[in-house]
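Researcher: Here's my situation. A collaborator sent me these components and asked whether they could plausibly form a single complex. I don't have experimental data yet, so a predicted model of the whole assembly would be a useful starting point for our discussion.
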Amino acid sequence: MKKNALILVLTLLCLLIAAQPAFSSEPEVRLNVWAMGNEGILIRNMADRFEALNPNVRIITQSIPWAAAHEKLVTGVIGGMAPDICQLGTTWMAEFKSMDALEPLDSHLQKSSFVKIEDFFESALSSTFLDEKRFGLPWYVDTRVFFYRTDIASAAGFSEFPKTWNELKALATAIMKNKARDNSPGFAISLPTNDWQIFLMFFWQAGGQIFPEGGLSPLLTAKPAIEAFEFMRSFFNENLASLTSGRDMDLLTAFETGFFPLFVAGPWMVSSLDMSKPQLAGSWTTAPMPANQSGASFIGGSNLVMFKSSKNKELAWKFIEFMMTAENQTAWYEVSKNLPAVREAWNAPALAENPHLKAFRRQLENAVAPPTIPEWEQIANAISDVVEPVMHGKRTAEEALSDISTKAGIVLHRAVKSEGATSLWTLALGLAAGVIMLLLAFFRWGPKELDNISNRRFQPVAVIFVLPAVFLLATFLFIPIVASWFASFTNWDMYGISNPSSVVWVGFDNYRQLFSDPVFWISLRNSLLFTFIGVPLNLICSLLMALVLNREFIRFKALFRIGFFIPCITTMVAVAVIWRWLYNPEFGLLNMALGWVGISGQNWLSNQWLALPSLIIMAVWKGFGYNMIIFIAALQSVPDVLYESAEIDGANDRQQFWHITLPMLRQTTFFVVIMTSIGFLQFFAEPYIMTGGGPLNQTMSVVLYMYNHGFKFYNLGYASSIAYVLFALILCFTLIQSIIKKRLEGAKK
Amino acid sequence: MSMVSTASKWQKTGFLVFLCVSVCCTLFPFVWMVSTSFKSPAEIFTQTPTFIPAQPTLDNFRNLLKAANLGRSFLNSLVFACGMTVLSLMCNAMAAYGFAKLSFPGREKLFALLLLTMMVPGQVTMMPVFLILKTLGLLNTFTGLIVPGVASVFGIFMLRQFMRDIPEEILEAARIDGCSEFRIFFSIMFPLCRPILATLAIFSFIGAWNEFFWPLIIMLREDMQTLPVALANLNGQFNTDWGLLMAGSVLVVVPVILVFLLAQKHYIKGIAAGGVKE
């Protein structure tokens, strides 16, 4: 039976592999184009048009999930698997340029007859111009404007949207006054607290500049930054805005009910409102930013870039050129509702006649792009981290400003290479020799109790049995573990991709930096919290269910067991989808259920006190079935005789539990505790998918922090040092637990 | 076997009610997922949730098939999971036999070293392994996806535990009869280990089917994506189509639950064996 199954599976495998389409036999030229999320799907429409004009070309479009886009592109570049053309966010340009991954377009641009650099919005172009060269062209733009309910604003006495900060404040106050009078729920404005873009907009409006002195320090002009912090915070202090960030809040509905009559958003909201809230038409519109020193907004969007590795650069340029014509920019707007980066495209009726887009058109002439430096993504993260505590009133604006410059200093310092360090290779070889010596010493003088006399005998055939696995483990486990050990003592980062010689030995710098990195300490605390709360909860649930299921009179045991076990075998991606929906602050079932018993709903995943417990509950739900099965088996292996004799001696249920069941479960419990603890210390997928580590880093785990540094920012050296601290922690845990176990056993004897 | 006890009727009903309530709570999210996947957007966003969709619709599933090349992803997941299962069983069983029943100098120490690596978080090795695969030109291939995960310390550990309990006398008898170690391994060990092998087979199948990060990083081309990655792709940056996501989740979850239901006895036995022995 086993054999048949094996043959069946093998045949299936062969068939499947044979069934892969054989691309190589096709005559056409192929062009790989990547775009993010939904745009990666919609770009197919444009690709079809291009193919109709160029019959011998086949465009292969691919959609990349937003959440993983950065790591996917980095791995693509390193792996030599980058596409010919890719959509690249404006904030990512410098980073990929510094990896030497992008192709300059200047020579193509000079030859082009119908793409002129002057046709684009200037602010959109700034992100494409690096080191006097043009890398990529703006594909579409995205700027932030105010969305507001005209009916609510005019009820508050504003027939026009505020033009200045003071008027904005007055409008918000008037709205709240009306709300208090009508006893209607909600706030005046939705202001996310974990969003660097919102903060920077206010900062720019206050007259601020990034890198005002041209050098890498200071990062922000001080006075406007403090003014921006205080202006933002006053909305929370005066209860005009809510402190829970809106990750899963359905803004559309909150807007419809008037819960949030004002919010700042990009162009995607126009089509979302048109489509899902048609009944609101006529009672909302958009407006440009109110001004302080200026009325600047943030400009984002995406560029199309060509990768250096492209083998079809002429054709790739042809496609980029095709996407930039006014006609196709309008067509792309109609397909995707993304705003054209080319001015002329705005004259098309679809854009010119849409009243909600007027504000965007005006704002685009007054929008600022963040600086194009490779470290920007990390600095932006640092700003988000700092803004949130200020809004919560935990830090003052002045403290936050100094926090920002400290953090930016660390990030930018990492970019400055330490020169004249010892040659990396000499040290690597030295260390490799050291590790080999250690291994040899382990085998020669290692723990004596592992030296079984019978194993001194050598059966040569054993080599054949053990070799395949040992070889694979050596290649894909030992070598990588040792390699990242080395890496943890280097400054290996994104500059190392294009220029390996820039990677130098930095000794304990990474570790030193790590111990003074506040986010690392938060992540460590969180991982310990996950473990100390999660493991006992998991243990209680699994043991309780095991005890109940072990009662002899319970019928359908198998069914119950399967029921409890199903969450264990479900992929985290699907579990995350389901639970994000259950935890949804507005339509989530959890809040509705609480509503029925009269408890007001919570913002489970974005409340700083609830996010971590919410993740733990989900993790326990997903994992307890596994340990339950182990406990059931352990319970069944307890000899009946023990219970029978206890029965005869008159022991009751409780006494039997404490004096027979628990002691007999000691071994199993030990095993379960170790395995579950290791699992919880490595907590990663849950926060990665559900919260991204937020709010306020309250769900950032050590492994997630390491992953962010490794794959998102490509600080391999730093990431490796985090990994080794975690490794040491897990080792300590296991050692402590085995000492406890030994003690207990000693006490028994 | 079970706890011998005399429980009153009330106690019995109490326990049963407790179990039923708990199992309902555990399974509820799945029921809700299935229910939502058949709802229209209007019905998803209501203040009074309905358990059974008032107007069930297949729109979400239709959109799902339009939105992503799911047939291909399904095949990819299947190849990945099946390939992983077959190869890792073979490789780990052989190694386990070596560690459990054959002797060579340093055996226990080598094994202790393997166990030690179980404590290193998996993400540590991701980047170096990626670079190794790149050097070998194995990115974007099933080989690159499967091979690094084939040898698993956990699998070897479980199998070794099981094999150690198989009496030496059986093997000695075979050896005296002139069986080679390979004969012994394939004709005696393999059949004797059937329960634990079945367990590990489902373990690695389900593990591979559910894997997210590794395929995401290794399979760069869209036509090589696995199902969980395709599901994650459905997430918009700013807006979330819950109906579509739920339909996708149903598609990812249901096959695994079916496989599990078919083989759950082996699976559960195996976990138990791994935890109780030693």
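Model: Some features of this prediction you could bring to your collaborator: Confidence is low (pLDDT under 50) at residues 18-25, 417-421 of chain A. Chain A touches chain B through 148 residues (CB under 8 Å).
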